[in-house]
Amino acid sequence: EVPTSPQSELLPPRRINSAPPLTPETSAANVSASAAITRRVRIDGQRFILSSTNESIILSGPNVVVKGPPYLPAVGGVTHCHDVVDSSCSATGTCQTCYTFNEADVELIKSQGRNFIRLGVVWAGAQPSDEDALDVAFVQRLHAILNLTDRTGIHVMLDNHGDMTASAGCGNGAPMWVSQKAAPEL
After folding, report:
1. What DSSP character marks residue 146?
2. Which residue, among 26, 21, 48, 49, has the nearest Cα to 36 in the 3D structure?
3. Is the dihedral of CA 168, 129, 22, 35 positive or negative?
4. Residue 75 within a domain
5. What SS3 string covers 60-91?
6. Number of domains observed in the structure of the chain
7. In a 3-state reduction of DSSP, which class is residue 41?
8. Residue 110: which of 154, 156, 63 has the closest Cα?
9. pLDDT tens-digit series, residues 144-175
10. In what order do the strands lie in the sheet with 116-121?
11. Quick one: 115 and 139 in the same domain?
């Protein structure tokens, strides 16, 4: 039996929208059955384990984070993001946001012996203006990126990204409408 806290008994789970949650069953149309099974990774202590083979793997790859609108790169274009090639831009402060993530980026990542991306998923992009609805364009971009990475064998960690919690504090994360509800006097 799972213990419950007084708070969990007071606050029943709330669905954000009426669409069913993405699970292996509901998203199976987007990926092949073999990819859905063989690409599962679990954590065992400090190791990442491929569930299908029980082998330990090392995940290595770049961040793919867009901290402002449209909050996710489009899957399109034919050239790779320069920052994936030259990561020294972090040290020099010359990195630029890449607004596309495509086959060329994946090929470059794989040519470097990498197998992973950390994908920034910013709440302000998912729900920019309505607490009960997800932004359709954002969800479509997310699906396109996940389909591309699944098809090409790149593992993805979804990063609920937020610098300084919210856009109201000159950061990113929670949408402006959340900040306005939390602190209307600001």
Report:
1. H
2. 26
3. negative
4. yes
5. CCCEECCCCCCCCCECCCCCCCHHHHCCCHHH
6. 2
7. strand
8. 154
9. 999 999 999 999 999 887 755 655 555 566 77
10. 63-64, 116-121, 155-160
11. yes
Query: Considering the chain, what percentage of its residues have pLDDT values greater than 70?
Result: 65
pTM: 0.68
Q: What is the CA radius of gyration of the chain?
A: 19
Helix or strand run (H / E) with residue 108: helix 103-111
Nearest to 50 by CA among 151, 153, 158: 153
Do 168 and 130 have their domain in common? Answer: yes
Residues 35 and 71 in one domain: no
CB atoms closer than 10 angstroms to residue 54: 9
51: nearest Cα among 65, 63, 35: 35
Q: How far is CA 67 from the centre of its chain?
A: 12
Evaluate whether residue 34 is within a structural domain: yes
Look at residue 13 and tell me if it is in a domain. no
**CB contact at 8 A, 126 and 73:** no
User: Of the candidates 57, 81, 102, which is a domain's last residue?
Assistant: 57
The DSSP bridge pattern shows strands 41-44 and 47-50 to be antiparallel
Q: 7 lies in a domain?
A: no
Residue 53 lies in domain: 20-57
Could you list the beta-strand ranges (E) of the chain: 41-44, 47-50, 55-57, 63-64, 116-121, 155-160
Q: Left, alpha or beta for 169 (phi > 0: left; psi -120 to 50: alpha)?
A: alpha
Residues 12-26 have pLDDT tens digits of 333 333 444 444 443
